[in-house]
UniProtKB/TrEMBL annotation:
Gene Ontology annotations of biological process type: methylation
InterPro entries according to UniProt: Ppm1/Ppm2/Tcmp (IPR007213), SAM-dependent_MTases_sf (IPR029063), TcmP-like (IPR016874)
Keyword field: Methyltransferase, Transferase
Name of the protein described by the UniProt record: Tetracenomycin polyketide synthesis O-methyltransferase TcmP
GO MF annotation, one: methyltransferase activity
Lineage of origin: Archaea, Methanobacteriati, Methanobacteriota, Methanomada group, Methanobacteria
SUPFAM superfamilies, alphabetized: S-adenosyl-L-methionine-dependent methyltransferases (SSF53335)
Amino acid sequence: MKQNLKGISETLLIPLWARAVEAKYPDPIIKDVKAAEIMEEIEYDFARFDKEWPTQISVVVRTEILDNATKAFINNHPDAVIINIGCGLDTRFFRLDNGQIQWYDLDLPEPIKIRRKFFDETDRYKMIAKSVFDYSWIDDIIDDVKDRKSILIIAEGILMYFTEKEVKNLINKLATSFHGAEMLIETTSPALVKQSQKQDLIKNQYQIDAKLSWGIKRGGKWIEKLNNRIKFIAEWHYFDYHRDRWKTIRWMALIPPFKNRFGNRIVHFSFIPL
């Protein structure tokens, strides 16, 4: 099928490719067969990504970390509400569904249009075609979930494309709207943001017109300063997982300044109830 993705939206094809490639490994970190099927159906020059092995391993490691954190949340809250911001062509619901959770995939209209070619909505799985900054989506979900109280919000591969002000405003809005919820976000470092901007890395490496805008050195302190109702829980650094797949980077990652300067993390925190 043809796709009309541009800018930041086009970056969703990178994790799709990464998961599809991983599915073909004899001993994959994650086995996302659906991603491989979707990639076969989309008209796009995925070969442009073939040399980007650090990106490929980074995506599958973050997928595993987020899968494990989400599964743990679902195990503790079997009837939870999961909100996946900037879902792209993610398949997490279909891999983790326990038959009880309520799941919302949120993205811009064009990515959601493509999703609808491959996924069907149900009473427990819904897609919302809106910008994350069109806060009417929050009202849509609150009206829909009614008395469900356990909420997990996921923001994977998206916040680094927003400005610091936009990220702060978004997280503060979520803290106000979803009392007691937990959130998982992907963060990158300021050094990588600066390098990306200076060298226009995304355009040069992936031939995609998008730029990184936001990064943090550590998750906990920055997150808790945003709002006095935010409580840091944990963070996971990608270089700490599957070291055999990081090639020469695994040795450099043993040096703390390098690890902190050049790696991505998943940060987990909660919104303290009123």
